[in-house]
Request: fold
Amino acid sequence: MATSQERIIPTDLRNEMSRSYLEYAMSVIVGRALPDARDGLKPVHRRILYAMHELGLASDRPFRKCARVVGEVLGKYHPHGDTAVYDALVRMAQDFSMRAPLIDGHGNFGSIDNDPPAAMRYTECRLQALTSASLLQDIESETVDFIDNFDGSQQEPTVLPARLPQLLLNGSSGIAVGMATNIPPHNLGELIDGLVALIHNPEITGLQLMQYIHGPDFPTGGQILGVAAIKEAYTTGRGSITMRGVANIETIEQRGRPDREAIIITELPYQTNKAALIEKIAELVNDKRIEGIADIRDESDRDGMRIVIELKRDAYPRVVLNNLYKQTPLQANFGANMLALVNGEPQVLTLKQFLQVFLDFRVESITRRTRYELRKAEERDHLLQGLLIALAQLDAIIQLIRSAADTPTAKGELIATYGLSEVQADAILQMQLRRLTALEADKIRLEHEQLQVQIADLRDILARRERILEIIETEVKQLKERFATPRRTVITHAEGELDDTDLIANEKAIILLTEQGYIKRMPVNTFEAQNRATRGKAGAKVKEDDNIEHFLSCCDHDSILFFSQRGVVYCLKAYQIPVGSRTSRGTPIVQMLPIPKEEKITSIVPVSEFTSEEYLVMLTNGGFIKKTELSAFSNIRANGLIAISLEEGDQLRWVRRAKEEDSLIVGSLQGMAIHFRCNHEQLRPLGRATRGVRAMKLKANDRLVGMDILPAAVLARLHQEVDGTEAGDIEESLTEEAAESTETSNSNSAPPWVLIITSNGYGKRVPVAQFRLQNRAGQGIMATKFKNLKNQDTMATLHIVNNDDDEIMMVTSRGIIIRQAVNAISIQSRSATGVRVQRLDEDDAITGVAIVPPDAEGVTGETEE
Reply:
């Protein structure tokens, strides 16, 4: 009993509780909940990846059961529950949780609907190629420290030799004691660009880094509203970033029932449960907290997410969508709390501090790796120097060894006689007889010379920090080339925020796109007006097998809609298109738009404002035409939007803006044209995913070359100018005889005109009054005759010109551009052949014409290809 009492240590309960709780708190903070700022990993993740590395589970090796990996981690490094290890492993394999998954999973690893993964005995895993290349390479080169595991039987790394800022790449979240971390994932390419910028300019600020790292890039895509919260998070370490899913309003077709509007959700905010979102929407509809929804269904498949919210007929789609943003997780906040361990202590870091901590760690890793390689090279060279001494005095050394009583005696005499070290003496005694040949001796000398060069280079690296920074830059750029992917999350501007357009002048510009997909923007004042029939200036440096295909005039604030032959539309702001000089080729459009290789842009339309009063009129190669409300294209997602449904073999070719009261003229290759109204009687408005109706009846070997819109005000003026004619009889008044009249002088013919340009460089203006209104799908009337030239001429373009002060810019297949006033081109009848507007080489032809209006305010030019 006395012995037991001697073991009792009196202590203060308050001090004991305080000390024990602090020890527990620090254990959770350092050993479980917070990531290390150097490699971005918590201990459990680091142990899983290292254990898989030891098992040889590289990306080019077969998969291994997850249960085998979990057992390895539990037995050697992580003496906790198997559930914790498997859950961490699963998350590193989920492409909707990690921006760049570290583990390649085979089997059921859960879903965005929060479905649980299969049991570890069913699933298999191996490392991703990125993990081996960026986290585990050089781990055997003494780049990081190793410590004993929990029972002292194994060694484990304290940190992995990361080559990328992994903590920012995949983000992290964790709840410790008294603190928590929540770091969003980012884009690999942007992080590397920011790191390189920091290497080149150590004084760079956080706001300057945002020119390279624009903001978080979530694996599920979606949108980020506003940059103010991103700036706050990057400069202070904390901020609330508003995320929003991608939702579009579309018209869906229904068999036996009228078409309905529907909200289509294709991307969700990060960490949003899709099944829970649908359940929440259904609950709000049942409680009548959201009105206007008729049906909800999940049409997601392996090709992508698609949640269809079908609306009632009397519902306002935008109002319903705004309610969904307000009351459901379709819009959520990411509370950024950039907390990580730096030298074992939790710190809130800014964007620059994150990159600086990683850069310092990378410098240390390369320094340690270089020292290791230098030591190995010096040890090998020291051994080779001993062999070279032996080869130089081969006979004497052989005699010494033969006369020695035993190996220790021979070793001692070698050291004493020739001044060798023990390592060199051992190497000489172990040298095989085949190493004594002349060829082997030359190999030893060559290796020694190469090692001398390597040792000098390694010492130079250790002596100069700039060499280490060059190595870091080279390595990360190689990783960017291999593993970088396009940004998934689009950063948009919140209401009331300063927009880019507030900082950019709304200047007039022209945009050129070549057949091979090079695009550029140039100020209109690059080209001064020239006289008619001159040669023009080079507008683009095009290759011999490349031609200018699209050409338009716009303003820098305009949205530019790009329509492909597949009927898909993409969108960019004009100022986002890089400015190029007259002689530059431009930027590949595939770097700016997610266009598949087999897809080609066939029409470009500038839009200053998306309104429901305007329509987009689309004309296909096969002669089908339709109009769709312009407002249906106001929210074009990053990967494009379906604009028209096409028959097999047909292609979308021309797209123009029009109002219901307008009319349009369609022209053909052989000089025919048809003029009909855009009203609902001739062209009823259709949804995006529809085909359209027949535009014009073509003769054999003829095809459409373009169309243009005649504004309603102009058409009304023409009605008034026909004396004694009722508005309903306008078609009869504009007779064929008027169209066959002789050339009209400039003095007695006012705008509008139909500007016709032929591929051989001839042009004319024809009064619109000579093109009578017809019903759609007719053969039309003759628009122009062609000169009898050696090379057969064809109609290249057809344009409506509404202003005598307008100018045109013409571009040829070889990239020659000429700008001239419209009033320099003669006004002639439909039966005339026109005058020469541009002098062309024999192998050149006009491919595009753009109208340049006299005033940029609210007016944009359109082009005909």
Notes: The longest helix spans residues 351-392.
